[in-house]
């Protein structure tokens, strides 16, 4: 039982997190901290959501194996 909306939302949030890490790595610019404050409660929630989405996306590897079998 898959939830396409949850998959797309998690993937979008993880991509936003990856872009933020790219900005940090290349330009030392933290977009989340710039927009929401340095470790404010809102920025901490965003960082936590990115981390949870990354953990959720690990399940994509298991799904790829299931699709290859069918």
Strand content: under 5%
Coarse shape: elongated
Radius of gyration: 15 Å
Summed up, the domain count is 1
Q: How many strand segments?
A: 0
Helical content class: over 70%
User: What is the average per-residue confidence, as pLDDT, rounded to a whole number?
Assistant: 89
The end-to-end span amounts to: 15 Å
Please identify the structural class as seen in this structure. mainly alpha
Number of helices: 4
| Uncertain segments | none
How would you characterize the largest beta sheet? none
What does the model show?
By secondary structure, the chain is mainly α. The protein has one domain. The protein is 83% helix and 0% strand. It has helices spanning 4-27, 31-36, 41-57, 59-69. Helix 1 packs across helix 3 (41-57). It is elongated. The mean pLDDT is 89.
């Amino acid at each position: 039982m898959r939830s396409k909306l949850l998959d797309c939302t998690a993937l979008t949030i993880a991509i936003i997190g990856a872009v933020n890490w790219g900005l940090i790595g290349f330009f030392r610019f933290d977009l989340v901290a710039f927009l929401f404050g340095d470790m404010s409660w809102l920025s901490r929630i965003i960082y936590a959501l990115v981390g949870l989405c990354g953990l959720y996306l690990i399940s994509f590897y298991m799904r790829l194996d299931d699709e290859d079998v069918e």
